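subagent[fold] <- orchestrator: predict structure for attached chain, return tokens only, no commentary.
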Amino acid sequence: MATKTKKTVKSNISKMAIVGILSAIAYILMFMEFSVPLMPVFIKMDLSDFPALIGSLAVGPVGGIIIALIKNLLHLTVTSTGGVGELSNFILNAVFILPAGLLYKKKKSKKNACGGAVLGAVLMAVVSVASNYFVVYPVYYNFMPADTILAAYQAIFPGVKSILQSLIVFNMPFTFIKAMISVVITFLLYNHLVPILTMNKRSE
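subagent[fold] -> orchestrator:
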């Protein structure tokens, strides 16, 4: 009984350490954002999503969500969106990592992890349209009129006629590509991560 309790405590400490390290990495990566071609200048790319994906595989979906939550809570200290951007980022991150975390928890295989991550990327892209349209952009309108934002999209592709259409044409594929970059990074590291990903299963 004592041995089992000791193993449980050790496992929990290991999980906390993994969550802490990955949260710190994700937070730092949020500052390493950059513009990308064929997107308005106010839309930036960063790679802060993949630590939470790794975490969802290493310690489970709840651990991944905690990583996403911690990085956004830390980013509130330097927010320029009044917390709205961080809320949207957290929601999208959670949608992204949950399928992979849940499927991998059910059966620890690379196929399940990869399939869940790709599914999460698709869901993240779709949810990003609603998140931006109903949550993020209404806040941005206080600083930049909707017509100005639309004009930025139209300068790249004049065919878009509304903010919603712009989000579907520009933001949805952008978000999918961003998520898939995180998927690729995660699975390039997969073989190196296997000892960590299987550690909790062995210790339980």
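orchestrator: received. Logging for downstream: The longest strand covers residues 34-35. The chain has one domain: 7-33+46-203.
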